[in-house]
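Page 37, continued from 36.
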């Protein structure tokens, strides 16, 4: 793909705007003033918006390093710009979290609950893709308005959307090709590195895993900063996932409490997470230096992170309590996927061979599970294991709520919900069997800087769902009435009310993805060795 010069981009942008205006005028004459969002059209504010995603960033780690002077760029944002805790979705998983961030709606409206979806006919899980996202992302609204976006490496954006602009899909990459829009952009990205599905830290694999993680981060950075500086855009959104991965697997070397960590490995990798963040801070500094005076820059995370030292194997617990059998179709309660504390009730109507009747039996089973889960104590220390048990209709709304797990479990700090074999003997609780030593919690981060941003720290958390409407509002786009989030007010001076007043109106949020396209994608994935 030929790289455009700045003059080329300016000329193309002028042509695009003139063409769009001519087409819009013609369609308006034909359809009348109700064309678009009830007659409401974009009113560009002169601002641009850049979102830098740092997956899994948490003030629990960052604030102490700020105090030590290790992260000067992020520390300056903390002290001299706006910052807040950003509250994630329930449960705090990257797939539904980033999807909620870019759509402004809860998972019950966009339909993404994990990186895997439960096939209720075959009782197996299958990879989710961007085609499973049922709500429009911010760049799709901008495309409708003939406005240009650059989108790089946001999780669950594969296959890429056909947008006005450039797009590089994010984790997971299930195929080695077909990850860019336009397709020919891929030819420019010879050094770009993809995120494979199902990565984990194998025994004696610490050096190789870390080397790959660092190389991937640097390749992503080079592409992102190049496009940030040299491409035409009104919205720029990129996500760096290395922070999430390194915190999952290397937390044990930084904080070995409750684990039998090889002292040689601890010595070698105890600063791996810190050093990763030092480099990320330098990268953030490059974006800060490259932005112009009209760019509002938001640095965000989809969730926070905490150490995990104890695992409750939920599948084994369900077996011990009599809720499941060796045949999933005969079980009252299912545990898919096998990590993260989400339970699905085998309800008649939801499953062809369901065993639990909807109504009173279903409600009684949910109540019983909640009571029992909240009563679990760790026999080694007497601590409560489960912090909260949510029913799906308590945290989700929308037409896809019925596809969600029925019960969502939040663990107390330090506890991970794993799988475990039903017939496994010995103690129920153990050190996590998966190689995770860090896991998600709901407390992410938000930094904001740029025109009309006021410095300060928010006393209360902001919602991840507010990101999309804030981006739309800053760019003068109509904010759809059916979004769950709202344009944030706390980060901005009163002047923003006159420059970018939030305009809320009826605007379709549903994506039009042909069922045939979804089927074709699913059939193609079945042939892959994921």
């Amino acid at each position: 793909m030929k790289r455009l010069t700045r003059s080329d981009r300016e000329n193309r942008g002028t042509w695009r705007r003139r063409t769009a205006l001519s087409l819009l005028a013609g369609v308006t004459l034909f359809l009348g003033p109700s064309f678009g969002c009830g007659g409401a059209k974009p009113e560009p504010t002169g601002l641009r918006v850049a979102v830098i995603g740092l997956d899994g960033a948490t003030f629990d780690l960052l604030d102490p390093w700020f105090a030590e002077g290790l992260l000067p760029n992020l520390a300056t944002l903390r002290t001299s710009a706006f910052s807040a805790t950003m509250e994630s979705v329930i449960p705090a998983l990257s797939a539904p979290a980033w999807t909620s961030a870019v759509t402004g709606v809860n998972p019950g409206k966009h339909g993404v609950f994990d990186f895997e979806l439960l096939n209720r006919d075959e009782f197996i899980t299958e990879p989710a893709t961007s085609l499973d996202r049922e709500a429009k992302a911010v760049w799709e609204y901008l495309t409708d308005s003939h406005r240009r976006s650059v989108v790089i490496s946001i999780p669950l954006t594969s296959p890429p959307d056909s947008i006005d602009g450039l797009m590089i899909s994010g984790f997971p990459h299930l195929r080695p090709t077909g990850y860019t829009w336009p397709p020919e952009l891929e030819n420019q990205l010879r050094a770009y590195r993809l995120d494979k599905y199902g990565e984990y830290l194998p025994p004696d694999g610490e050096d190789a895993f870390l080397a790959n993680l660092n190389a991937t981060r640097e390749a992503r950075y080079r592409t992102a900063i190049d496009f940030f500086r040299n491409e035409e855009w009104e919205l720029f959104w990129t996500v760096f996932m290395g922070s999430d991965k390194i915190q999952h697997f290397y937390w044990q070397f930084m904080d070995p409490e409750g684990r039998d960590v090889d002292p040689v490995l601890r010595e070698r990798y105890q600063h791996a997470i810190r050093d990763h963040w030092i480099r990320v801070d330098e990268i953030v500094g490059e974006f800060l230096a490259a932005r112009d005076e009209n760019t509002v820059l938001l640095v965000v995370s989809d969730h926070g992170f905490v150490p995990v030292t104890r695992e409750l194997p939920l599948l084994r617990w369900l077996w011990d309590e009599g809720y499941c059998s060796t045949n999933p179709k005969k079980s009252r309660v299912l545990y898919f996927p096998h990590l993260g504390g989400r339970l699905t009730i085998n309800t008649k109507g939801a499953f062809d061979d369901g065993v639990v009747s909807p109504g009173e039996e279903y409600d009684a089973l949910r109540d019983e599970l909640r009571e029992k889960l909240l009563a679990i104590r760790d026999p080694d220390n007497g601590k409560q294991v489960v912090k909260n048990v949510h029913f799906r209709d308590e945290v989700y709304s929308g037409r896809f709520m019925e596809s969600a797990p029925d019960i969502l479990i939040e663990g107390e700090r330090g506890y991970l919900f794993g799988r475990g074999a039903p017939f496994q003997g010995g103690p129920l609780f153990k050190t996590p069997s998966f190689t995770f030593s860090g896991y998600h919690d709901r407390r992410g981060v938000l930094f904001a800087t740029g025109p009309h941003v006021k410095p300060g720290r928010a006393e209360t958390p902001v919602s991840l769902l507010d990101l999309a409407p804030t981006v739309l509002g800053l760019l003068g786009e109509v904010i759809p009435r059916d979004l769950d989030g709202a344009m944030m007010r706390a980060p901005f001076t009163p002047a923003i009310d006159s420059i970018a007043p939030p305009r809320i109106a009826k605007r379709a949020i549903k994506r039009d993805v042909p069922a045939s396209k979804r089927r074709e994608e699913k059939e193609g994935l079945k042939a892959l060795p994921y």
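Confidence is low (pLDDT under 50) at residues 1-39. Flag for discussion at group meeting. The radius of gyration is 24 Å.
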